[in-house]
Structure formats: structure tokens, C-alpha cells
Amino acid sequence: MHKLESVVQTQHRNNKNDTPIIEALQVNEAQFVALRRRFHQQPEIGFEEHKTSEEVARLLGEWGYQVHRGLAGTRRGRYLKRGRRQKTPGLRADMDALPMQEMSGKAWASRVDGRFHGCGHDGHTTTLLYAAEYLARTRQFNGTLQLIFQPAEELLYGGRVMLEDGLFDQFPCDAIFGLHNMPGQPLGRVGLRDGAMMASSDTLHIEVKGVGGHGAVPEHTVDATLVACHITLALQSIVSRNITPFEPAVVTVGSIQAGHAPNIINDKVLMKLTVRTLNEQVRETVLQRIHDIAIAQAESF
Asked: Does the record's keyword annotation contain Hydrolase (predicted)?
């Protein structure tokens, strides 16, 4: 895997290395910790981020931002202008949660059954609000600041819907900055690298069609479950044998949906998988190999 090209280590809490910016942010630290926990307790999945979006809009309005509503459903655009410069940077965060159950036992754990901020978008939203409050309070910029709160990142097309709805036609940006939390890293550590920082993410479905029958007479069937298992194993050869070890790639089979009865050989299986890479050529190679392997394995039966 690619290592981070550089790491910026900052000091947190009260010590002699704290900068004026850190000191100014710490004034409201407790407020934003509480805000993040409120978001965490009320998670909303893609395109259902109504309460989250309303809270974001309310706070930004209080801080003097012009709030625009209506793009991509729950998406909100906000901007703040100061000075005469024409530069327009954008700051972006996602808002949606995952459709899964939280089992953390934390006092601020999700209060919504089957909904969980397991990817930390509650933290992303709060981080951007934290920056927005600081910039509105201190006016430490010159130009027009665009804030982009994106819905449905986990659905993989929330950003595309925003673009189709005219995000950059209405709110052009010279550059956009975003971040992603990284659990396990030391507090205050920021990772940077040249090129792509976040991997592409492709979702694929493979439907295996066989010939079903009774488990007592397997010779009269083509076992779709067995075929799917062979495909799953063969797919793991792509990264180790078709991709250079100097380029990262991951192939994950996350779901295999087959039958229910213990004595019936299935005639159909649905496989769901994802591919993640940081290189377009590697991405194309992996996708082509998945196609070729699935067909070849199926034909071998």
C-alpha cells in the first residue's frame, strides 16, 4: 500500500506550542463535542438527512452565512463573503449515516434502530461547522467561502446528484478541500499525499444461474452456490497476481445471497462486491479481470 507522503503533527490541548488558531478553536470545544454527539444520537441515512440538514442550516444562519436550499434533496449550500478578493474556496463534508446497528454502548450511542454513524460523518459535519463558526467569528479570510454539506455519500451517488442539480453552476469554486477521519491515528495527526487521497469505489453484482434440484441427485444439477464459491476464491487472485505490488487495490465480496432449504441445490445466486483502487489503469484491469474470471468459472461447470 502507498504510504502517506507526509504527515503533519499538531499539538492539541494547552501547551506552549498551541497556535492562536488552536487557542481560538478551543474556546468552543465543549460546544462542538456536544453537537457531534447529538448528530451521532440521531443518525440519518442517504437522502434522509432532514434533521441534520436543518440543524446545519440553522447554525450557519445564526453565524451570518447565506444559506441555499434545494439541491439534491437534503443538500445545503452556504457561503460567506469578506473582502475584495475574487477567490472562492469550497469546504466539503458529508452528513449521512449507515443502515446498521450500533453496539458501542456509549452514552451518546445511536437512538435510532438500525441507523449508525459508523463511518464518522457526524464528525465530518461537526468539523466543517467548527471551521465555519471560527471563520465567521474571526473573519480570517478574504474572498467568498463556499460550504458544501453533501447527502448520500454512502450511496455513492450523492455527489453526482449535486452536480446534476447545478452545484457548481450556482456556486463555482476555485478549489475544494475535504477530509476523512482515520480512527487509530494519534490525536492531532494529519496525513497528506500527492495524487489521489481517497480510493475509487465500484459496486458490482454478479448473478450466477445454474440448474437447481434436490440435494440427493446433484448429478442432475449445476450448483449455483458452488459456482459462486469458486468465483469468490478466484477473484482473490486478481490483486496478488494481476496487479503490481506497488499499486493498492482491494476486491471485497461482501454478500452472497443463495437459497434457504438445506436439501435443495440452488439455481441462482446473487453476489455483491466492491472494488477500491487509487489508479485508473489498475481499476480498469481489476474490473476486466472480474468479468473474465466470473465467466470462465461459470463455464467450467
From this structure: yes
